[in-house]
Amino acid sequence: MSAQEKAKAMAEKTKGKIKEGAGRTVGNESKEAEGRADQAKGDLRGAKEKAKDAFRD
């Protein structure tokens, strides 16, 4: 996994966790859902990069 893509995946997951926590704190369910979606995007980005690495080797 390239370092840049790994950093993007981690940033996406972190952004999602923050957004989800903020939504939960203020009782905003849509913001909480957006946070979970951002975390899922980060997970998918990381999985995609791992798959690309597996085929390179």
Report on the architecture of this protein.
- This protein is mainly α and 57 residues long.
- The chain has one domain.
- It has helices spanning 3-26, 29-56.
- Helix 1 runs antiparallel to helix 2.
Multimeric state of these chains? Answer: single chain
Tell me the Rg in angstroms.
Answer: 13 Å
Strand content: under 5%
**How many structural domains can be distinguished in the coordinates?**
1
The number of helical runs is: 2
Distance N to C terminus? 11 Å
Would you kindly provide a brief summary of this structure?
The protein is built from 2 helices and no strands. With 57 residues, it is mostly helical.
What's the arrangement of secondary structure elements?
Elements: H1 3-26, H2 29-56
Helix pairs in contact: 1-2
Question: Which features characterize this protein?
Answer:
57 residues; mainly alpha
